[in-house]
Automatic annotation (TrEMBL), chains A, B:
GO biological process, one term: D-serine catabolic process
Span of domain D-serine dehydratase-like: 259-365
Alphabetical list of InterPro entries matching this protein: Ala_racemase_N, D-amino_acid_metab_enzyme, D-ser_dehydrat-like_dom, D-ser_dehydrat-like_sf, PLP-binding_barrel
Coiled coil feature spans: none
Reported cofactor(s): pyridoxal 5'-phosphate; Zn(2+)
UniProt KW ATP-binding keyword: no
Assigned protein family: Belongs to the DSD1 family.
Alphabetical UniProt keywords: Lyase, Metal-binding, Pyridoxal phosphate, Zinc
Domain of life: Bacteria
Keyword set includes Amino-acid biosynthesis: no
Identification of the protein by name: Alanine racemase
Length: 379, 379
């Protein structure tokens, strides 16, 4: 890690580059949209795990953050952020660690979607003579976790908490199946399904006398596709801050919106095969092949020139740990076009997975200068 | 990170567990084989990036190590290992960093497979009034980098180095296509192809008056399948130390040899779908789906009980960042069989990729106690 300014051409490879102008544009577009829809915005920081990025989101108007691990909660609380939603169903064994954070002054909200976890929270809080604000996780698209809005278990669990002296502060849902769509009408329909389901869950809880102040929905594609957010109080989204090739295939962005890229160097050629070997393998790109089942399969990423312009007829078709194989169409002199040591930039399939491979981003300004933005790792 | 002893049941999840007895067995089997074949052994430490593991490999008889990044070279030199092969084609811009390590006393060998890199090394060394030992990378199976043993470019590049005052210390090859096989005879044939090609390259160089002392071959499957290593002086292998599900499909191990697993907790259920939700998502397992095209597709990993026994009829079919979806066949009472908070262990598809997700391993002794073994991250 170093925090002095280096030009992008001086950086060692591989390196994770954040185009600051693109990132700021993505932040501004999302925040403006949320402002127009009349909801607050709580970005999911699991994408970046980077205080420099999150401070830019807060500066643009975000209110609080969403995290996927207690380590994220601890690190961002240490970085000055107090209002934190831990949006993965709580494991009872993690309650002491969560409570320790609350005792330091963190306004940490936890979630539950089952009676066993709710009962464990009640018991823990009684023993600790303390409390948590708990939100109930709602399933609005069947892709993963959560309670159906129409299931009576929703009310049962709400009552376990309320009767145990725990505040049910809200309901939250994440329509993650939006990643599988690529049609604007289908995305708008899923956004409405996400909204309607989560609002319905809140209304049923309120009708049963359980307060449920907050109604929290979101995923990057549905946040950008929603036409109405009536009854919703806040939206969450994460990957929009950088975007990636999966999101471009979904239609949530274009490739020129993608703010994260991997800087790599040419290390060899196999002219008979039309291959250029680069030092961005799967350790640099991640093993994420999220575009493999989408309209456009980008292999391990979209190769661009150092200035960010996509290279026509090139595909990162293979990756070993520290080797990437860039297949180039119709080129009789690969070694001339791609000399040893030449630097390229690769746009990633999945910004969350690629970022996780790096201890730091290099934030790139329009003049070519970069500065290191640390990110953290682990749980 | 903590270095005090904890029982496996006390660990927070997800966590990367190394079964010490299995690891030591894997180390001993490989070293014994190399001893019997009359070659020295230079393990590839990219799998673990963990000094505790590598010291066990050295203690068993390994001579020197192989690395895939200069960071690995720097970290392991700092941990006391001097004889290091950097086995990724050198980028000329990395030569100053490599030389800095050599100046500290590291016996660092670098590799090249093209004239441009060879010329850059010669020029750099002239300007620095210093030298490197360079090995030539040989392609014996067409899967990635290297010079064909029969290509005259091999001799041209050897002469560029020699005439520039650089010692050509050896040839090295890696038959990485062995990962795509699963038949003992085909593996033995590929091991022979790897051996014969690399020895032929060395003989051609020697016939041209280029010394080429070392002949280095290897991959985990070919190292275990080779019947003769005549003419070879050393073998390299990496993943054998932990093994993984890809290697089990190749036939290089059984699932009961796999020393790395991910400790996870049950966080929810979707009984209508037969799903148990666990806190091992792709951040914990990696996105590696290396078994997807093999005989047995293990999804994101093989689920086991806390004691390491594989669970019949269970498959980790999906993974989001911090959620894994464990599909369970024929179970009417998932919540009873897999209560909230229950701990499981998941064997990974690819030990190198899964390990890279963690700042540390938890090394598990036979009495259930664990101790933290730090590993490093980045380049």
């Amino acid at each position: 890690m170093n925090d002095h300014i280096m030009n992008i051409e001086q950086l060692d490879t591989p390196a994770a580059i954040v185009d600051i102008a693109r990132m700021q544009h993505n932040i501004d577009v999302m925040q403006s949209r949320m402002n127009a829809l009349g909801v607050t915005f709580r970005p999911h920081v699991k994408t970046t795990k980077c205080p420099d990025v999150v401070h830019a989101q807060i500066a643009a108007g975000a209110r609080g953050i969403t995290v996927s691990t207690l380590k994220e909660a601890e690190e961002f609380f240490a970085a000055g952020i107090v209002d934190i939603l831990y949006a993965v169903g709580i494991v009872p064994a993690k309650l002491p660690r969560a409570m320790a954070l609350k005792h330091k002054g963190c306004d940490l909200k936890i979630i539950a979607d089952n009676a066993a976890a709710a009962s464990a929270i009640v018991e823990f809080c009684k023993a600790a003579n303390d409390t948590f604000e708990v939100w109930l996780e709602i399933d609005t698209d069947g892709h993963r976790s959560g309670l159906s809005p129409d299931d009576d278990a929703l009310l049962t669990i709400g009552r376990i908490l309320r009767d145990g002296g725990i505040e049910v502060g809200g309901v939250m849902t994440h329509a993650g199946s939006s990643y599988e769509l690529n049609d604007p009408e289908a995305l708008a329909a899923l956004a409405e399904q996400e909204r309607a389901g989560c609002v319905r869950a809140a209304e049923r809880l309120r009708a049963a006398g359980i307060a449920c102040r907050t109604v929290s929905v979101g995923s990057t594609p549905t946040a950008l596709a929603a036409k109405s957010l009536e009854g919703v109080t806040e939206v969450r989204a994460g990957v929009y801050v950088f975007f990636d090739l999966v999101m471009a295939n979904v239609g949530a962005c274009t490739t020129s919106d993608i703010a994260l890229s991997v800087l790599t160097s040419v290390i060899g050629h196999q002219p008979d095969k039309g291959w250029v070997i680069v030092d961005a393998g799967w350790m640099a790109m991640s093993r994420d092949r999220g575009t493999s089942k989408q309209t456009h399969d980008y292999g391990y990423g979209l190769a661009c020139a150092l200035d960010g312009t996509p290279l026509e007829g090139c595909a990162l078709v293979g990756a070993n740990q520290e080797h990437g194989i860039l297949a180039v169409e119709h080129d009789d002199d690969l070694a001339r076009r791609f000399p040893i040591g030449m630097k390229l930039r690769i746009l990633p399939n999945h910004a969350c997975a690629t970022g996780a491979q790096y201890p730091e981003y290099h934030a790139l300004a329009s003049d070519g200068s970069t500065v290191a933005w640390p990110r953290f790792h682990g749980w």
